[in-house]
Every structure is written in C-alpha cells, then in structure tokens.
Amino acid sequence: MAAPPQQMQIPKDLVETLILILRDHPDLKQREGLLKLEKPDPSNGDTHKNLEFFRLKRLIRAIQSKQFSDAIKEKPEVMRNLKNQTRADCIQVIVLLLQLKFLTPVIKPAHQVLKKEFKVKPSKKFPTILAITAEIIKTVEESEDLDIADYKIDFAKPELSDDRYFCWNITPLDKTRLSKQVSPAEASLEQEKTTSTIWDKLKIVLIVSIGITLVLYPVWPYKMRVGVYYLSYGVLGLLAAFFVMAILRYVLYLLTLPVCKSQGGFWIFPNLFEDCGFFDSFKPLYGFGEVQTYSYIKKMKKQKSKEKKALKQQPKN
C-alpha cells in the first residue's frame, strides 16, 4: 500500500465522536464479509470474523455528506483542523481513521484466487476478505498470475484507490465504548424515549394485572362480587341509554327536518358523534344543522385562516 498523505493531529475523543456518524452511514452501502484472521481468536479459536466492508469511494461520499458536514460544523474545535470539501480533505479524514485503527484495508479475491494463491477456503455464505498485510503482499509479488498493481492503494491516484476495499474494526456492539457527546436536544429526546418506555411497561403490567384479577373472579370476596354484579348492570344501563338517545335524536331530526329545513334540522347534542373530547360531545345541548358541530367550526376556522393568509400575500398597490 502506498504511503498515505501526512497525518493530522486531532484529539482522539473528537474523532471518535465523528466515527459514530460514519460507522453506519447509508452512503457506504456496506456488505457483510468473512475476514480471514492471521491468528486464531484466543477467546473462541475462530479463524474468521464477520465484518462489514465497503469501497473507498463510498467512504469519501459519506465524509462529504450533509450529515457529516453538519456534525463537524457543530464543533468549532474540529472544524479548525478537519474539512471535507475536496478529495484531499476526505483522504486526510481516512488517514485519521487508519491511524486510530478504526479501518483496515482489505482485498476481496475471487474464489479460485483464494484457493490457489492464498490457500484459503472461500465461504459460500459471505464474501471472503483478506487484510492487506506484508504476507499478502509477498504472496502477490511471488505469484505469476497476480499483478501487484491490483492490490496497491495509492491515495493520490483515484484509479488505484477508489475501488479498493476497507472494513471496520468497530462493530456495532463496540460503539458503546466510544465517547459519545450528546447535545441537549438529543439528551431531551432520549429522556422522553426512556420515560415513554417506562410508561409502556407500566401499562402492560396494569393490563396483565387487570386480566389476572378478572380471571380470579370466582375467588373474590362475596361483597366485592355483588358490587361488581350491580356495577355491570349500571354500565349496561348507561350503554342502553346512550343507544336509545342516539336513536331518539335521529328520529327527532327526521321529524323536525320538514319544519326546520332551512336551518338544517334540529339536533339534540349536535357533537355527539363528532371527533372531539368526551365532555365536548355533550356541548351544546341542542342545535340546528351543522353550524354548531365541532367539525364545521373547525372547518370555518381553517377557511378564515386561509383567507387571512391570502390577503396578506396580495400585493399592496
């Protein structure tokens, strides 16, 4: 791999904050691959590791994205040293990621090349990728069928770098170790989410408790069962009264329609079936037509608001 441009010195904590934006950026179009490890993993003995890889040109697009630009503009101390306007600026950011070992340059040889040249059995499920190491470079140089130019990464020449592959050394689970700096707005949003989650859990517990309580009805105390018995009759009575009232108000409307046709008929509780609050459904007690309904009043307010805006937008002579 050709020598990259000169490295910049930027505080590591700020770079770690920025890497959170790039790690799962949609412009990367990441693919999951199987990286052949130089040494077996001491924790589990695995010789391969699942990692996400992408092309260099995709990383440059992510660095030049609006999301990344907004992030560095929010931090003046970063903006003094970090830019993303040109390709050279983006390469400097990539060099920082390599310097901090967030990225690893890799190659994705064909299956036949993996078997013949690198003595690696390719995976059928994921593309097999190899980290560019001194051993890999030596194998390529000694091979008669491979061209070393196809494995070089020259940042100064797009044709020798843009289609080269890189993979993350930071898995999504490892992102929790980064020093994530949260803005006040994000903190407030996170707090609202936490509160909402707690409230949702409480509602689930409440629903389950009510269900268990109803199932245990036969073992309730006698007085409690009698009270619930009469209460259920009261609820049924209210429902019956509601349906009777709904039928009577409609019958009354039909009877008064010939007399009050110009006014739109006579209604008891005009807002009974309107999209409004419970108590607002019973206000007013009576009315004519749809003039006093909630939807009509709302519609008229919107119309007046539009008329006012139209008057304001008219040019003054």
Explain what this protein looks like in three dimensions.
By secondary structure, this protein is of the alpha+beta class. The strands form two sheets. A five-stranded mixed β-barrel has the order 1-2-5-3-4. Strands 6-7 form a two-stranded antiparallel sheet. The longest helix has 35 residues, at 222-256. It has helices spanning 12-23, 56-63, 66-73, 76-79, 87-99, 111-116, 134-142, 184-215, 222-256, 294-313, and strands spanning 31-36, 48-55, 103-107, 128-131, 165-168, 266-268, 286-288. Residues 173-187 have low confidence and may be disordered. 46% of the residues lie in helices and 10% in strands. The chain is elongated, with a radius of gyration of 35 Å. The chain has two domains: 12-181, no CATH class; 222-306, no CATH class.
Order of helices and strands: HEEHHHHEHEHEHHEEH
By DSSP (H or I, 4+ residues per run), the number of helices equals 10
Described by the principal axes of the CA atoms, the overall outline is: elongated
Structural class: alpha+beta
Total discrete domains: 2
- Per DSSP E runs of 2 or more residues, the count of β-strands stands at 7
- Strand order in the sheet with the most strands: 1-2-5-3-4
Strand residues, percent = 5-15%
Main sheet summary: 5 strands, mixed, barrel
Indicate the mean pLDDT: 78
Please tell me how large the radius of gyration is.
35 Å
Show unreliable segments.
173-187
